[in-house]
Amino acid sequence: DSSDEEESSSTESEESEGEDPSEMDLARIYERRIQWSVHKLAHRRRVVEEVVHDLLHVSRERFLNSFFPVLQPAIGVGSACEGWSPQEENDVVYCVLVPLKPPWGHTFRLEVATTGEMPQKGMCVCVELVCTCTGEQLGSNTLCFLHHCKEELTRNQKPSLLQTLCTGPYLDAQKIALWFQKFVTSAWEEVLQSQHYSMKVLPSTRSCKLKLKKAHRKPLLVEIIFGVQQGDSDIFLSSQPTEALVPPSTTWLETYAVAEAMFFQHVSRQAPRHSCYLKCLQLCARILVGTGFSPYALKTVVMHLLTLIPLAGWCRRDLLLRLDDVIQYLRCCVEEKRLNHFFFGNEDMPEEISLPAAFQTAQPINLFQNLVEDPDAQAKALREANNL
């Protein structure tokens, strides 16, 4: 970690040339107050990526000829994997989404499980058997679930996905989480990082939470969630519940986390070197702790600003200006009682992000709808925004 600090220090001196001294000092004061540096978050994220990559490699070998869901490469999602975090050091959780594909002889069909206005639509993943009589087989003895008798299938073949991780015809998020937790416990010794980290599976009903501990280091908290892709888009159905809603085990909630991760990857490719947008997020997230503004509202504000302000305007010397923009934008949204969800009806969406057609034509959804319905909540939010 000392090498990280040296690199950060050299970067600071390298970037400070040509800056106004008073602004430079104030910016550095702000940066020192950010408890978790963007650099350290990125370093620990890479460790998490290695661990999950190795676990999934073992899973592919272990379940090669089974009919469990096919685990796809993990996608880092959420604030810590994007490079910022509102949480204290010991509470930072690195979240990754593992997409699920149907195994041989099965297909997934999505059914709407909840009605009402998006976002956070709930859907069920209906698992259906398909004929494999004439298709390419897993092995020489693979039988078609539809056209072989039950006795022959029971005697010669492993059970179908419908018999293991489903409730009725629907994929069960709780059964998948428990199955994967048991796998991780049994497979940990086969993972290269097990030589350096001890691992404990923490209680969780719809995901796999891991606590990784290295001697004399703070623990790494990892949450592995499972997702089913909607068509070819970057919108998934997630096993992870929300703070406000814990749905039935066969209901999966729509998540925009992968699309958000894709957006930040797009920005990182386009932005100038040493851009300050992650530092803005990090600092504002820490400032907003204890207020009524959620980290998601903050992230939405910054995503909108990243499409409104040219990326050339997010250099390190622009930190104070961009911090002011974030707070002013947030305050204006409170005054207008409206913060548009980033992925619905947004004409400024980068082409690299793939959304369902319904998203592109939808009316913008108001994340501050509660302020419309509750004048007291708006008055409180205005006071907090003014205090910022």
TrEMBL record:
Record field: compositional bias (Acidic residues): 1-23
PANTHER family per record: CELL FATE DETERMINING PROTEIN MAB21-RELATED, INOSITOL 1,4,5-TRISPHOSPHATE RECEPTOR-INTERACTING PROTEIN-LIKE 1
Domain of life according to the entry: Eukaryota
Ranges of residues in domain Mab-21-like HhH/H2TH-like: 293-353
Gene3D superfamilies referenced in this protein's UniProt entry, alphabetically: 1.10.1410.40, 3.30.460.90
Protein topology in the membrane: Single-pass type I membrane protein
Similarity annotation: Belongs to the ITPRIP family.
Entry keyword set: Membrane, Signal, Transmembrane, Transmembrane helix
Protein name: IPIL1 protein
Subcellular location field: Membrane
InterPro entries according to UniProt: ITPRIP-like, Mab-21_HhH/H2TH-like, MAB21L/cGLR
Pfam families in UniProt: Mab-21_C
Entry GO terms, CC: membrane
Stretch list, region Disordered: 1-24
